Description:
The complex is a heterodimer.
Chain A: H1 2-33, H2 55-63, H3 66-97, H4 103-111, H5 122-131, H6 139-142, H7 149-160, H8 164-172, H9 177-188, H10 190-206, H11 209-214, H12 223-233, H13 239-271
Helix pairs in contact in A: 1-13, 2-13, 3-7, 3-10, 10-13, 12-13
Chain B: H1 2-42, E1 45-46, E2 56-57, H2 61-67, H3 70-86, H4 89-102, H5 107-121, H6 125-134, H7 141-150, H8 165-189, H9 194-202, H10 207-218, H11 220-235, H12 239-244, H13 260-270, H14 274-298, H15 301-304
Antiparallel strand pairs in B: 1-2
Helix pairs in contact in B: 1-14, 2-14, 3-8, 3-11, 4-8, 5-8, 11-14, 13-14
Amino acid sequence: MRAKKIRRALLIVILLVLLVIVLVPLAWSIVLSFDRTALSSLPDFSLVPHEFSLFNYEVAFTSIPLVRYYLNTIFVTVVHTFLAVFFALMCGYAFAKGDFIGKKFWFIFMLAVMMLPFESRMVPLYLQYKSWGMLDTYAPLLIGACAYVYGIFFAKQNIEAIPDSLRESAYIDGASDWRIFLKIILPLSKPLIATLSILQVLSNWNSYLWPLVVLRSSEKQLISVGVSIFNSQQDAIYYGPRMAVAVISAIPLSLMFLFLQKYIVQSIAVSGIKQ
Amino acid sequence: MKNKQALKIKAKRQLVWYSFLIVSIVTLIVLTYIPMLQSVRYSFFDIQVVGFGEEKFVGLQNYEKIMNNASFLKSIGNTFILAFLSLVSIPVGFILATLINNIGKGKWQSFFRVGYYFPNIITGVSVVLIFQIVLKANGGLLNNALSFLTGQDVTIGWLSDSHFSRFGATILSVWGNMGYAMLINLASLQSIPGEIYEAAEVDGANGLKQWWYITIPQMKSCFAFLFITSMINGLARFTDLFIIGGNTSAGRPGGTLQTIMMYIYQFSFETPQYGIASAGAMILFVMTFVITLINLKMTGFFKKNKL
């Protein structure tokens, strides 16, 4: 018994040491972001700034419209998540409980999309939006949300588990399928909605390639692309401000993770999807 | 009369169900299937700039061109080398999961689960910015640590020296992905029924034997899943390497980090030749398709969903 306890304590110590090593880069970048001396040369490693100051953050906020990028990203993330989750549940409900001609066909039609990577149809999609005059607007970033294929699949599986008896009694009371969907299925699907929303927020906040391709004007940029452009312009020096920007752009997801860690870890483990 | 009424109701029910689906169906047709077919079509045409000049059908010439193009072949090589190197995150994640699992359920376990997963949350641009400094040749954290350990002055340009850049890029991706691998491994470890171990204990199998004869075989499908998702992500790798190259798709340093996706980007947006880009996209598609198909088959997806 005692040997077991010692072994467990030893394991915990090993894991703690490893975790510190893993997280040191993050800690150092935060330290650098507050260090006035981290400008044209990289200061030695330290756990506290050599000369504490908010200078780097001032530089970051005055060099690029960070607040603007933030608001843009929040707007796109919220709208995209809402559309994606809502339409995924609608389709999921129809596939789980519906009885209509062509059900199997449309289900395969949707799932097959999982095998068509976005990257392999990016160019025609770009040209399509170009001919519609929608480049440099948020439309290309948002319209695609109306068909969130992974979400549809998960929604179908989850809604299938809701017992039919609830629907049947609602039918007898004369409720339509839309009413049942809005009043019964949606309220019962809160965990599903949470999981899908978390996955959506994670992937939207970090999306990069597509916004890079479709957005041109700098004031419309999302935080990911905006920050990387700033980074490439400051190549080689400006360590402190670059770290300040990195910290700022990582804050929202970190905060979300801090508060929702249990749900997030659960969502990832259940779905197997990493952003 | 009655029949007609019943038919009408039936038809209406059909419409109601389709009203749930129609938006997504149209979206997929317009934004997925049509562009995909366009992509196939473009790959057989000589198109420089769409709308200007003729679109000339050239058959397989685009494919011939890129399959003989040294930089495309190099980008395929780079992509696979990087994808395979990134697989390191799977054993790392497995070891972490084993250690975390061994301390038993409770506060510490949840703490480590969350702690090790944290880097995965901030993947994206921030991580690249941070690792550009961590992996810097002079004064970078890794070189400092190596200098300290070896007692010599180590100045390896992990992201700037073309001999080391692939390792540098791998350190970055393993750091970002091991938490995910750990999480999936842990979930899988904890789903192995305890009775198997109890039976083995009765039979006198020691810890190492149990690990080798029970744990590893039980984890096979988990490893396969991680292998495949890691490969699929690896094939489409773009963002971090694009940023490391200073927001260009050249795959700096020295083209060692140009992936297929970056090659496609180059011929789509930097020096547009849509025919070439689409042929590249088709090759990427076929590779991803094959891997996905293997994945679905292996996980019994078709059986489970009666497809």
